[in-house]
Amino acid sequence: MKLRLTPVLISIAVTSLVLFGGWFIYNSLAMKEPVIEIAKDFPGVEDAKVDRGERITVQLKLSGEANIGAIVDSLRRDAQRVVGNKTLDITIEDNSSEELDTWWSGVLFEIAEAMENRRYGEIPGLLESHKREGMTIDTTIDDAYVYVRITEGAHTKFVLLERMPPTLGAWSA
Description:
By secondary structure, the chain is of the alpha+beta class. It is built from 4 helices and 6 strands; from the N terminus they run αββαβααβββ.
């Protein structure tokens, strides 16, 4: 039996087109688009992008008045049905300034210490004690994160501080 080269190559090309085209459509319609639509439904979300791989990464561009706690909490719950058992990572793009970043770096050690010792209730007081004139600080908390929004003038910085789950006594140091 002699195989002809043209029909074999056409079969390979059509099969590849169907397989990779199907994967692309699944990736776009079943994963990326629903997560983007969920994210864009929240007030304060200006743009959302999704990168899909081993982990699903959602990049949010937020306006200054966005309620970061409500957005991330709802996104984690609503997107879970779409992403399934994959890990959902959320990154925030804000319009922070160099001054806000420098201020945050100066406060970070005390915030990290409160996070490490699971004294989350001290964080608002620590931030308020370092607050500058004209600065607004909002903090909220849920089961996974402590959310911080720092506004100074036209610039806003959003920070997600991941809470540590409690460890069992047998494994704690």
